[in-house]
Amino acid sequence: MLIALALGILLCATYTTQIIDFLAKPIGGIHALKAIDVTESVGVFMRVALLGGFAVALPYLAFEVWLFAAPGLHARPRRLGLLGIPLAGIFFVGGMAFAYLLLLPTALPFLLSFMGIQTIPRPSSYINFVTGLLFWIGVSFEFPLIIYVLTLMGIVKPPFLVHNWRIAVIVIAILAAAITPTVDPVNMTLVMAPMILLYFLSIGMSHLALIGRKRTVTEAS
Predict the structure, then answer these.
(1) What range does the domain containing 3 cover?
(2) What are the tens digits of pLDDT across the range 67-101?
(3) The pTM of the whole model exceeds 0.90
(4) Pairwise CA distance, residues 1 & 165, whole Å
(5) Is residue 106 part of a domain?
(6) Assigned domain for 157 exists
(7) Total domains in the fold of the chain
(8) Which DSSP string corresponds to 45-72?
């Protein structure tokens, strides 16, 4: 595991400048960032290399965990666990792509010109802001898979999700207000809309999990 993590960090360190430039594309690229502290650029370089390396190595680390746990699992949970690794990655990357392609281009112009004050982005604050936003939006896109697992465990059932959808929309609105980098309704709607769709997708995933759970119980009996 440590070797995979070290290789991931080394790989990302080789392309860290390109990664930072990619993250800074919404504001004009890496040259739009202005460092103030002497060590600021080095700190940002190390942060991006470490985070990128961990992200690259994470699928392999998850696979190692699956290999460790697989001998103690039944056939169906073992297959679902193996399938869940790429699915979780797809949902997470989808969330980050949504934040990068839709949310950032609409939020940054508002933030950089708020109150007519000229804002000069610093590498540390900008990268922290962007990576944090990408991470939390990516995590929120994992909700359907989380509901699927909770249904398999018998903790959540589809009727509960259907009955409480109005409460879920209110909670989503609160979360969107917390995650959204701006306070304007356009960006809040951009965050809320996919999260609401994900909630209803979660209901479908919960139904599938319940069918699988009943089938497993039937086979076991």
Answers:
(1) 1-100+120-139
(2) 887 777 677 777 877 888 888 888 888 988 998 99
(3) no
(4) 41
(5) no
(6) yes
(7) 2
(8) HHHHHHHHHHHHHHHHHHHHHHHHHGGG
